[in-house]
Amino acid sequence: MSLPTTNFDPGFHITRASHVVLTVRDLAASRQFYQEVIGLILTAEEDNALYFRGVEEACHHSLVLRNAKDVSCMRIGLRVFSDGDLDRLKAFFEAHDCPAAWADVPHQGRTLHAIDPTGTPLEFCATMPVMPRMITKFTRHAGGSALRLDHYQILTPEVRKACEFYMAAGFRLSEYIAPSGTFDLRGVFLQRKGNPHDIVFFNGTGPRLHHFAFLAPEVHHLLYACDVAGELGFGARIERGPGRHGPGHAMYVYMRDPDSHRVELFNTHYQVMDIESAGTLRTLISPTPGDCRRAKPGSTKQRRSQAPPSAHRRSSRAP
Q1: Residues 275-292: pLDDT tens digits?
Q2: Whole-prediction pTM value?
Q3: CA 33, CA 48: separation in Å to the nearest integer?
Q4: What pLDDT does residue 310 have?
């Protein structure tokens, strides 16, 4: 068994992780948390829904919160380069026996709903209304000053199946986690926009959203977000960190929002763009399952390994 390989010309162009759609029970508490602690900009409040974007984002939204009795992750969203890509992407899903259908979604252009082979509900669009970037509106910066949505992580018992599907769709593998001497994939970091990840799959019961992540400008914004969380009564929602990841090497802090959705603020990245960059970073683990992504220093070792270039809702509550 070897690593899957990327199809560099799948016939469509997925550009990046775009947005996340969640349900929450208390819109007022969620609004305070995401505006004041995470530092997002509220674009609109309408029809029992909140639409947020990052400080530097010109898109209408990267986080949608819908009021509901049951807490769930409804869909994760990705962008494609053009409307024509949506037609070809729909055909790609259908060729893999995956459900795909057009949907009418507020504040988005033509939108495709689909489900990947592991059951993850997805949403693709090419356009949204353009909003002003707030990056130089310094009085609007708050908390972690979240700049933009960067990635999300999904738990699934079918990591290899997910990896094969997304690499067939043009994603590149930047890092993976496997027991030493094997390609038994326990975690994969897949990207389209040129940094380590747009979507990450880790072994676990699912499909379930583990977390979604926003980029912060500087490391001190992680600390300041924690200070603000404490002052506003969200101190117990700081789940882990600030600290540094093993895979990815980013500085991070994980928090839980008022409905226990997990959100990450992080800082620092490396580039994965050039076609000749065939070295995939591999984290080796012992055969005993463990928390690879949060492993203590010294409990994993890393080396450069030459590698070839559901319509149903799932809760984002972690076990």
Answers
A1: 766 456 777 665 444 444
A2: 0.88
A3: 17
A4: 30
Distance (Å, whole) CA 1 – CA 185 = 11
Do residues 183 and 198 lie in contact, with contact meaning Cβ atoms separated by under 8 Å?
A: no
Q: Which residues contact 10 (CB under 8 A, 6 or more apart)?
A: 92, 168, 169, 170
Question: Which residues partner with 99 through β-bridges?
Answer: none
Listed as ranges, residues in the chain with pLDDT below 70 are: 248, 276-280, 284-319
pLDDT, tens digit (0-9, with 9 covering 90-100), for 244-266 = 887 767 899 999 999 999 999 99
pLDDT of res. 285: 67
- Give me the phi and psi of 57, to 5 degrees please: -85, 140
> Any idea which architecture 14-306 has in CATH?
Roll (3.10)
Phi-psi region of 142 (alpha: psi -120 to 50; beta: other; left: phi over 0): beta
CA–CA gap between residue 212 and residue 292 (Å, rounded): 18
- CA 142 remoteness from chain centre: 22
**Burial 80-116, CB ≥16 within 10 A → b, else e:** beeeebbeebbebbeeeebebeeeebebbeebbbbbb
Residue 250: per-residue pLDDT: 85
Cα–Cα distance, 276 to 163 (Å, whole number): 20
How crowded is residue 262: how many other Cβ atoms within 10 Å of its Cβ? 20
80 forms beta bridges with 14
Backbone angles phi, psi at 303, to 5 degrees: -150, 160
Give the chain's radius of gyration (CA, Å): 19
Dihedral sign, Cα of residue 35, residue 40, residue 45, residue 50:
negative
Q: Where are the domains of the chain?
A: 14-306
Q: Is 254 left (phi over 0), alpha (psi -120 to 50) or beta?
A: beta
Concatenating the DSSP letter of every residue in 13-30 gives -EEEEEEEEEEES-HHHH
Residue 112: both structure tokens together: 């495709």
